[in-house]
Design a protein that fits this description.
The protein is of the alpha/beta class and 423 residues long. It has three domains: 2-171, 3-Layer(aba) Sandwich (Molybdenum Cofactor Biosythetic Enzyme, Chain A); 179-252, Alpha-Beta Plaits (2-Layer Sandwich); 269-408, CinA-like (Maf protein). The protein has helices at residues 10-14, 21-30, 46-59, 77-85, 93-105, 112-115, 153-171, 190-200, 231-245, 257-268, 282-288, 306-311, 317-323, 328-342, 389-408, and strands at residues 2-8, 35-42, 62-66, 89-91, 119-121, 125-127, 136-141, 144-149, 179-185, 209-213, 219-225, 249-252, 272-276, 297-302, 346-352, 367-374, 377-384. The strands form four sheets. The protein has a six-stranded mixed beta sheet, sandwiched between helices. Strands 14-13-15-16-17 form a five-stranded mixed beta sheet, sandwiched between helices. The radius of gyration is 27 Å and the shape is globular. It starts with a strand and ends in a 15-residue tail after the last helix.
């Protein structure tokens, strides 16, 4: 079942707001058998909105409109819907109750701007908004179902999961949910992954469709089937993937690198400590962003200066003077110091040159040393990511977590992404 999206807002056209809502809508609907086939974005221009809706409603059986339901003068969706349907804006009793209840719960008096959100096309019914003050709007035009939703992401998410999907499913009961397995990979790109599939899995069945979604730091690989009778076949294909690129598969569906590491630490009842320099605490932030991390995260030390490396982590100043902060000797000393200070079982330590300045011929911008392991032994490796500072920190944080993930799973395989550069 294919549908269209119309997103409205000057802020989307100027780039002041990045469109994440269409991605949210597409992913949520796809899981229920509704594919987004067409997307249009327009500014806050009522004539443009109406013109696009005339086109889309003539082409598709359902259109979701996102944005323009708020209390301000540039929120035009309700007015556009009234003009589109040839009806008048009237005070909707259900919407009025919703606005007043929303305001009362916050101890504020509903003003004229708030009450604007209760003016809806006379032919419309409301879509409940369990989070915000603006209800959604549902009506039909050109035999097309129109569902209007607010632009605030948290409100959109709540409504998608509620009445929006319910309405689509009641109008189009024959929509069949696709069965998708999403695998998360780190350390391999799309082209290398595709080549591995062609080389190692030459007889891939057409019933199992492969898709990729590039991202940083994780690549998503999708295995999709249209009928449950092919589930066993999809499982066989997943096993083939594990056999040829399994070392790069971090998890599935909503797994992140940090959530996988936290889960492994919980299973093994181990404690983690961190000694970060160039990442500035980003690894700790990723770990503590996972519910339940307090069970396994002991301490994180951002030892940005050499003085703190020596004073807090006990790094010998002679190592800093002889080898420099970005070195195998120092990062391993940082790791040992963090283990000793915290009493934790395992560790990640990082020290590098994030840039854009500070590089040398021996240690150019993008150089980083990472140490990981535990009391049973430490490992370390040098990497180079000559990229922007923010992306460097993202990738280094992911590298540290992946190396610890491999350590916790007992992997002895040398990671395929290692650049064999040791100094």
């Amino acid at each position: 079942m294919k549908i269209a999206l119309l997103l409205t807002g000057n802020e989307l056209m100027t780039g002041d707001t990045v469109d994440s809502n269409s991605s949210m809508i597409a992913q949520e609907l796809a899981s229920k058998g509704f594919d987004v086939a067409h997307k249009v974005t327009v500014g806050d221009d009522i004539d443009l909105i109406i013109a696009e809706l005339e086109k889309l409603t003539a082409m598709y059986s359902a259109v979701i409109v996102n944005g323009g339901l708020g209390p301000t003068i540039d929120d035009l969706t309700a007015e556009a819907m009234a003009k589109l349907s040839g009806t008048q804006l009237v005070e909707n009793s259900d919407a009025l109750i919703h606005v007043n209840t929303w305001c009362a719960a916050r101890n504020i008096q509903a003003n004229k701007a708030n009450l604007k959100q209760a003016l809806l096309p006379s032919c419309a019914t409301i879509i409940a908004n369990p989070v915000g003050s603006a209800v959604g709007i549902q009506l039909e035009h050109n035999n097309c179902l129109l569902l209007c939703t607010p632009g605030v992401p948290s409100e959109l998410a709540a409504m998608l999961d509620g009445e929006v999907l319910s309405s689509l499913q009641s109008h189009f009961p024959d929509a069949t949910a696709r069965l998708v397995r999403r695998l998360k990979l780190f350390g391999i790109g799309e082209s290398a992954c595709q080549q591995a599939l062609e080389d190692e899995c030459p007889n891939w069945p057409e019933e199992v469709v492969v898709g990729f979604r590039a991202g940083a730091p994780l690549l998503e690989l999708k295995l999709e089937i249209e009928d449950a009778k092919h589930l066993a076949l999809r499982d066989q294909c997943e096993q083939q993937l594990m056999d040829c690129i399994g070392e790069f598969i971090v998890g599935e569906n909503d797994d992140s690198m940090a959530s996988r590491v936290v889960a492994l630490l919980q299973q093994q009842k181990r404690q983690l400590t961190l000694a970060e320099s160039c990442t500035g605490g980003q690894v700790a932030s990723l770990i503590t962003g996972i519910a339940g991390s307090s069970e396994v995260f002991e301490a994180g030390i951002v030892s940005y200066s050499n003085a703190i490396k020596a004073k807090v982590l006990g790094v010998d100043t002679s190592l800093l003077e002889q080898h420099g902060a970005v070195s195998k000797q120092v990062v391993e000393a940082m790791a040992k110091g963090a283990l000793n200070v915290s009493g934790a079982d395992c560790v990640i330590a990082v020290s590098g040159v994030a840039g854009p300045s500070g590089g040398t011929e021996k240690r150019p911008v993008g150089t980083v040393w990472i140490a990981w392991g535990g009391h049973d032994g430490l490992h370390s490796h040098r990497f180079n990511y000559p990229v922007g500072r923010a992306f460097f920190q993202t990738m280094v944080s992911a590298l540290g977590l992946d190396l610890l993930r491999r350590y916790l799973t007992g992997s002895t395989q040398v990671p395929g992404y290692f650049q064999r550069e040791r100094r």
